[in-house]
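User: Can you recover a sequence for this backbone? Please restate the input before giving your answer.

Assistant: Of course. Working from this structure:
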């Protein structure tokens, strides 16, 4: 009779240990899932911040280029257009510049509002 009682207690103890182990696995799985979700959120924010910074850098570089390298070309292109010259190298250079900006906006490299 004692061995039968001992067997039942051992069985219940084993079942309890199995349930506790299962509960621990569920808690650990949830903790891992929650951590992955938080990590993904942080990485998304960092990516968006880096993308914004890169867009600002591109706009600054293009602004410097437009104010520096293209300043004389802008004046010559404006004069050429005022005189009715459409087949002018400076005009094409300025149009290519704005085409590059448009491509960067369409591809999402820079924000349209910032341009």
């Amino acid at each position: 009779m004692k061995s039968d009682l001992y067997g039942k207690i051992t069985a219940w103890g084993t079942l309890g240990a199995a349930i506790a182990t299962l509960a621990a696995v569920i808690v650990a799985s949830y903790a891992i899932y929650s951590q992955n979700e938080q990590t993904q959120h942080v990485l998304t924010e960092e990516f968006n911040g880096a993308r914004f910074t890169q867009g600002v850098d591109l706009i600054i570089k293009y602004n410097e280029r437009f104010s520096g390298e293209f300043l004389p070309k802008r004046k010559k292109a404006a004069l050429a257009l005022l005189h009715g010259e459409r087949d002018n190298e400076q005009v094409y250079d300025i149009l290519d510049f704005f085409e590059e900006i448009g491509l960067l906006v369409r591809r999402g490299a820079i924000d349209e509002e910032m341009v």
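That completes the design. Residues 2-106 form one domain.
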